[in-house]
Amino acid sequence: MRLAYLFERFPAFSQTFCYREVAELIRQGAKIDIYSLRRPTEEPAQDWDEQIVERVHYLPEEKPLLEEVARMLRKRKLPPVRETIDHWGRKTDFLRLQQAVYVGLPLQDAGIRHVHAHFAGMAARTAYWIENFFGIGFSFTAHANDIFAPRAFEISLEKLVDRARFVVTETDYAANFLRERFAERGERIHRVYNGLVLVEFRRADFSAELPTIVSVGRLIEKKGFPYLLESCRLLKERGHVFRCQIIGEGPLESDLRGRIAEFQLQNHVELLGPKPQRDIVGYLAAAAVFALPSVIDAQGGMDNLPSVIMEAMAAGLPVISTPIGGIPEMVVDGLTGILVTPGDSTALADAVEKLIVDLPLARRLGQSGYERARELFAIEKSAAALIRLFEQLRL
To answer: What is the mean pLDDT of residues 321-344?
Structure first.
């Protein structure tokens, strides 16, 4: 079986689940050509497999891309493609058509008949044009904002679902959401959980004298970090000694630092910035609680299946989160963690207090979470499910 994977950026620190998926598919015998529309920039150092990174085909920047595509079209003489590109002109997303030619012609020459993209964004729209120009079928994995707050493009989510051979999404919640919206294409939509390499994670031992709350995510509205800071203020007022470590970067950093100063939490809360995966493993293993108080943002965006929650479960940590999107498929309230109402800082503080005071309870919830992660989120199972979908295409 040979196919191509197409990404906007690969490998990317914020999308380690994509790297894991490709690596495991290759390990299970799939032959994958990897294309990335852009190069990752300013990324923390990661322990990527050099043999995988070296096989990534990176597309050139805009000017050399346009020059090379013009040369390719002169050589190949493809009037319908040329006419479509000329007619499109400089309308929004015009580079997707150019990138489709740059990627599609080598795929055609290599006899590759299918492309899979992650996110219903640049990569999926490029795959759409590859199919349009060269008849090479495509599928894509739709993630949180792709589904719940899609942006308006000429090649819309509706057009992508209509043309894709199949659509993967990460949770039953999201799959059912898409099946209801695109009822006539419901049979094309499949749930495949993101996978984890469970052996990469060290188990938390709850031995630290200072109870530590860890959270990981981009510093954006839907992650709910202001509510985590408010809960830390409440915990401090209640006389608890603790530490809260937030790993990630994003546009809300300045606002969060201002709140830390306002609440006088400088001795309790650390904004650590982005960290490589090996460091995140260490922070999780040293923690007592993982918290991600997800909310629905002003544009309707929300989490679907945050990989960081799965990673915390793989470390045997109890998880505190909210019943947003597919989170309840991971965090079973009272069994693997505690779910609180989105935006309720007091309930969040109560949940954290409960777990840092009762470490035997934290251990029990964490152990149940580890067992659930092993059952549902092992990368071997996720990759095997994808391979079954690709095999149905007889590639």
So the answer is: 97
Amino acid sitting at position 237: E
Sort 11 into a burial class: Cβ within 10 Å, 0-12 / 13-18 / 19+.
buried
Closest CA to 127 of 165, 90, 83: 165
Q: How far apart are CA 197 and CA 374, in angstroms?
A: 10
Residue 337 Cα distances to 289, 311, 332, 333, 369, angstroms: 9, 14, 6, 5, 7
Q: 256 pLDDT band (50/70/90 cuts)?
A: very high
H or E segment and range at residue 371: helix 359-376
Tokens, residue 293: 């108080």
Q: How far apart are CA 199 and CA 315, in angstroms?
A: 10
Q: Dig out the tokens for 179 from the structure.
A: 């099946």
pLDDT digits (tens, 9 = 90+) for 72-91: 999 988 999 999 999 999 88
pLDDT in tens, 289-318: 999 999 999 999 999 999 999 999 999 999
Residue 330: predicted pLDDT: 96
Taking the model in full, what pTM does it have?
0.92
DSSP string, 75-116: HHT-HHHHHHHHHHTT-TTHHHHHHHHHHHHHHHHHT--EEE
Residue 252 CB neighbour total at 10 angstroms? 18
Element (H, E) at 117: strand 114-118
Q: How far apart are CA 307 and CA 330, in angstroms?
A: 10
